Amino acid sequence: MNDHSPIGVAVLGARGRMGSEAVHAVNQAPDTELAAEINRGDSLEELTRSGARVAVDLTHPDSVLEHVTFCVDNGIHAVVGTSGLGEAELDTVRSRLGEDPDTGVLVVPNFAVGAVLSMRFAEIAAKFFESAEIVEQHHPRKADAPSGTAARTAHVVSRARDEAGLGSAPDATTKELDGARGAEINGVHVHSVRMSGLVAHQEVLFGTEGETLTIRHDSYDRRSFMPGMLMAVREVGSRPGVTVGLDAVLGL
Ligand SMILES: NC(=O)C1=CN([C@@H]2O[C@H](COP(=O)(O)OP(=O)(O)OC[C@H]3O[C@@H](n4cnc5c(N)ncnc54)[C@H](OP(=O)(O)O)[C@@H]3O)[C@@H](O)[C@H]2O)C=CC1
Ligand SMILES: O=C(O)C1=N[C@H](C(=O)O)C[C@H](O)C1
Prior knowledge:
Blueprint: E1 7-12, H1 17-28, E2 32-38, H2 45-50, E3 54-57, H3 64-73, E4 77-80, H4 87-97, E5 104-107, H5 113-125, E6 131-138, H6 148-163, E7 183-185, E8 188-194, E9 200-208, E10 211-219, H7 226-235, E11 241-244
Parallel strand pairs: 1-2, 1-3, 3-4, 4-5, 5-11, 6-8
Antiparallel strand pairs: 6-9, 7-8, 9-10
Helix pairs in contact: 1-7, 3-4, 5-6
NADPH dihydro-nicotinamide-adenine-dinucleotide phosphate binds at residues 12-13, 15-19, 38-40, 58-61, 63, 81-83, 108-111, 148, 225.
């Protein structure tokens, strides 16, 4: 195989909403070729048998760690679209990769370029506002809440607030119905809406004396995720170890 040969890509979760789009995108792109479609019940050995250079995981939060571990153990670069890899799981992957890894694991909470930009804009805005909350809205067949994107956004907003020396956001609530203030991720409240008709949407709300700022992103179609997914497939092999987010790939 020379450097100009197409990248062999295995798609895990190939029959799913995202997986079927990914199969189509990989088939359409001139520099990638579909090596394998892995569905529930298929053996992961199919990944090694197929000779795939890159595996794209679009399955379920319950199985993603097992899949990534298998890829790392077999030297297959992994692009992880599935939500559910938290810090503890990422540490497991890092230790499996070892000190001087050859294999890349690129974990992308959201492949949509607009969503990546919106997270960066939120990170920039965070230090200027005393209040910050996130409202994410998704289709009702989504397994996880809050979304991986919201969790990542809360993480970067919280880090920026900490670096700026901001304390807790003002909140006088002392009596509340369970869940009324959403989930709290590193001190940032996150509210999850599940509703027919939606695909994937997020607002990051900031407030300070006399003004608010809202950063909103909408994916109306899963095709919005495909350019970023293909960028990740092309880049993962040149980024050994664990990378989170598409920022570096986009040059942000
Ligand atoms: N990073 C990003 O930009 C995006 C990420 N996502 C994430 O991708 C994941 C998939 O989303 P979506 O496509 O909507 O979900 P779907 O339920 O439509 O698709 C998941 C597919 O994976 C299959 N699957 C489940 N477990 C396994 C397994 N162990 N091995 C092989 N296949 C398996 C499912 O099979 P079965 O139906 O039999 O269970 C299904 O076909 C979610 O975590 C979602 O949050 C989604 C959109 C964008
Ligand atoms: O399940 C989805 O649909 C999506 N999942 C990802 C997430 O959890 O953030 C990305 C996007 O929001 C769509």
